[in-house]
Design a protein that fits this description.
The protein has 410 residues and is mostly helical. Helix content is 48%, strand content 5%. It has a five-stranded antiparallel β-sheet with strand order 4-6-7-3-5. It has a two-stranded antiparallel ribbon with strand order 1-2. It comes from Palleronia pontilimi.
Length: 410
């Protein structure tokens, strides 16, 4: 009987919270809003009327990811680590690239004056602003479905990053108090990002800009303000005016893919001296040869390669993904210069789970490699660690996870 009781208890612990438990958590959530969020918001100048309006009818959103209800512990392995490990090329699907490009060209004509004004003021090329705008909200055409106070309230109360989302919740209340957003416009992504540029609330307070001179920074309805805000964000994060984001290149076999990464920055002329050339056949511009650049190989030897400048990493400040920054740079070039697809295709990726990649990462960590965390994602630290392990074991470096490595790296 004890064994049966133990088994039943374990089964109950593995199941989602039942209705009664959820009702209790909802009560805790409402108490937390009053005892923790209201005093913090009041201290930041938020009125009781604004606070009550924001949370009127708001309940927890149990469908959001990474939730840790009171009385439970975060899972040892995050759920998404069990997802299939995919090819980087999927990020550049035909529909996304073509839509962002074609609509971007229309927007370039429609908003030429606003884009030119921001470029003069900040040095940010209009094509880069357009590509971010397109990726974030489809140039304002994508529906933004969530109530920001429900999202940030839920994640502030019970997520793996509760402190971060609590700060964002207070910032969202400050935005509402100041009247920045039009009525009923406080809609967000599942992560709490707002408006056409998809700014988190703290980013809005720091970087939102008035592009049309009406004294407001309306990133919900104003294209001019959206353009100015994206430009201001990139400028404040260190965009180097006059420099490009990067160049697609051909990397000879004599240059190791394990040299990848921003900590391997060196003058671009040094990369050129190693035999790295632009796939376009054009030389690197003289001013770029003098500037710093790093090697980027998102699919290792199995896909396109790039020499990227510090501006590429400013794009990553907007979204911490190599593929995001690469998408923005590539679509921007398509909008302005009419370039085609990357010269080299992405190739194929072995079918495996992200948990397989995470196991490989842990094995590499045990050998002393810095893989950037065992998260099942092949970031540059993981890619080059694989390359260094391959070189150390006498294998040709590919710098990308493969099924054949799973057993070798356990």
């Amino acid at each position: 009987m004890r064994l049966i009781a133990t088994i039943l208890a374990l089964i109950c612990l593995s199941l989602p919270l039942h209705a009664a438990s959820r009702a209790a958590v909802e009560q805790q959530f409402q108490s937390w809003l009053q005892s923790t969020i209201w005093p913090a918001a009041r201290q930041q100048g938020v009125s009781r009327a604004t606070f009550d309006a924001a949370f009127s009818g708001v309940r927890l959103d149990w469908d959001l990811p990474d939730l840790v209800p009171p009385g439970t512990k975060p899972p040892a392995t995050r759920r998404q680590s069990q997802a299939e490990f995919g090819s980087p090329g999927k990020y550049f699907n035909r529909g996304s690239v073509d839509a962002a490009t074609s609509v971007g060209r229309q927007m370039a004509r429609t908003h030429a004056a606003a884009l030119a004004a921001v470029e003069r003021a900040t040095g940010i090329p209009g094509r880069i602003i357009l590509a971010i705008w397109g990726r974030e909200s489809g140039y304002g055409r994508v529906d933004i479905p969530h109530d920001v106070f429900r999202v940030l309230g839920t994640k502030g109360f019970m997520s793996t990053r509760s402190g971060y989302f609590t700060d964002e919740l207070i910032a969202a209340l400050r935005i509402a108090e100041a009247g920045h957003a039009p009525e009923s416009a406080m809609r967000s992504s599942w992560a709490g990002a707002l408006g056409q540029p998809q700014f988190m609330p703290t980013s809005f307070l720091k970087y939102a800009a008035d592009g049309n001179g009406d004294g407001r920074a309306d990133i919900w309805r104003s294209e001019a303000d959206t353009i100015a805000s994206i430009g201001n964000y990139l400028a404040r994060h260190g965009w180097q005016a006059g420099r490009d984001w990067g160049f697609e290149v051909s990397v000879p076999a004599s240059v190791s893919c394990a040299l990848e990464g921003p900590d391997g920055m060196r003058p671009i002329r040094d990369w050129a001296a190693m035999g790295i050339t632009r796939v376009s056949g054009k030389p690197f511009p003289d001013h770029e040869l003098r500037g710093q650049g790093s090697l980027l190989m998102p699919a290792g030897r199995g896909g396109p390669a790039f020499i990227v400048t510090p501006n590429f990493y400013v794009l990553k400040d907007y979204n911490m993904s190599d593929l995001y920054a690469l998408f923005v740079g590539h679509v921007g070039d398509r909008i302005q210069y009419g370039v085609g697809d990357f010269a080299r295709g992405w190739g194929t990726t072995d079918k495996m789970l992200r948990s397989d990649v995470a196991a490989m990462q842990r094995a590499l960590e045990a050998m002393g490699h810095d893989v950037g965390g065992a998260d099942g994602l092949a970031g540059f630290k993981t890619r080059r660690s694989i390359g260094r392990w391959q070189e150390a074991t006498g294998q040709p470096p590919t710098c990308f996870p493969a099924r054949s490595m799973v057993q070798s790296l356990r």
